Amino acid sequence: MQTCYWKLQSNEQDAEVMAQAAKLIQAGEVVAFPTETVYGLGANGLNSEAVTKIFAAKGRPNDNPLILHIADVKDVEPLTTGLNENAKALMEAFWPGPLTLVINKSEIVPDAVSAGLPTVAVRYPANKFAQQLIKACGCPVAAPSANISGRPSPTNAQDVWEDMQGKVAAVLDGGNCGIGLESTVVDTTEPVPVILRPGGITYEMLTEVLGAVEIDPALQGDSSYKPKAPGMKYRHYAPKSAMYLLEGEAAGLLPKMAVNALEEGKRVGVLCSRATAEALGANENVLAKEGEGSENLLVSPWGDSLEELAANLFYLLRDFDRTMPDVILAEGVSESGIGLAVMNRMRKAAGYQIVSLEDGELSVKIGSLPKFMVK
Ligand code: TXA
Ligand code: MG
Asked: What digits encode the pLDDT tens for the residues 202-214?
């Protein structure tokens, strides 16, 4: 399939592009589009056959339900048998925005969207291009993240192109996504709403509106719990290289571990704050003097704030698939605010190879500690 690439310009030309994209979606085709979280792969959410094409393009297991995207609060009504007070309060507080609500579904939602569940996930994105497209389509737009299943979600149109060229009808390029992590998913059908996937609308923001909110225990990586969002059970966001996440005090050992791994002859990728990158710069000079060279050290600083980390994380993870280090060392961060979502994605990206330091003792949650960490 020939895939069209359309750049959005934020001027009158956009209306023409949106009309063409909407025509494709109405005809049952799949179009990738930007949102404030990550890029989505959109199809007519009320057309099972069109929705099936999304699963094919991504290679997504069909037991993993999709989110329906709307562009007007009142468009949620036909999709549900009814909203409770918690759902209404969240819509009021956070829509449009990076919050997806799981609600009881009505008959018009195809099983292909809900994967046979009695509920449906609905989101009203804040991104202007996404809103224009959904409005032009005149139907709810089913859209998962626009990556091949298992890869980090794309946060710019080039990354979408890399995964979806030849597989979908068109890609709309609306620039970089501001938030960079997928929306928060909240199940509002429980008496106390449950966060199924952390995201840009944080735990703190949700408790302020709802009082009590639970976090799905499966998010802690405890395999004895089955996640309630089917998508959260899959290995995800994983770069091709082995990745270790250094949490808490272990993060302080990152520069030393990187040097040890370089001395073993490894190509080392490092995902860290600007401050840690500067500390590593010092080590790099020491190594250069010893003739080790620094071309084997691939440092990817994400900036200073948790928001910058969220915005850059998926791009940097995908970038490691281009540079292919032997090992990636990632610096853990605080779980406050959007840090909870960032740590959730980094733990999954690392395949739960989480390294911690307690009472001077290093340990790893899955597998065994590599040699360069213990010496
Ligand atoms: O930010 C986002 O949410 C992006 C953009 C494109 O809007 N979309 C996105 O979709 O991340 P996707 O398909 O990659 O993730 C949807 C998540 C999955 O973990 C899925 O299992 C869960 O939402 N989900 C969907 N419907 C559900 C339902 N009825 N009950 C529980 N979980 C559901
Ligand atoms: Mg996804």
From this structure: 999 999 999 999 9
Helix (H) or strand (E) holding 158: helix 157-164
Q: What ranges do the domains of the chain cover? A: 4-231, 242-373
* Residue 197 structure tokens: 């996937």
Backbone angles phi and psi of 314, in degrees to 5:
-65, -35
Indicate yes or no: pTM above 0.90.
yes
Q: How many residues in the chain?
A: 375
The pLDDT tens digits of the residues spanning 116-161 come to 999 999 999 999 999 999 999 999 999 999 999 989 999 999 999 9
Q: What is the CATH number of domain 4-231?
A: 3.90.870.10
Residues in the ligand 1 pocket, defined by CB under 6 Å: 35, 37-38, 40, 64-67, 100, 102, 114, 117, 119-121, 123, 125, 143-145, 182-183, 185, 196-197, 228-232
Instruction: Say if domain 242-373 classifies as CATH 2.60.40.10.
Output: no
Q: Residue 145 Cα, ligand 2 centroid: separation in angstroms? A: 4
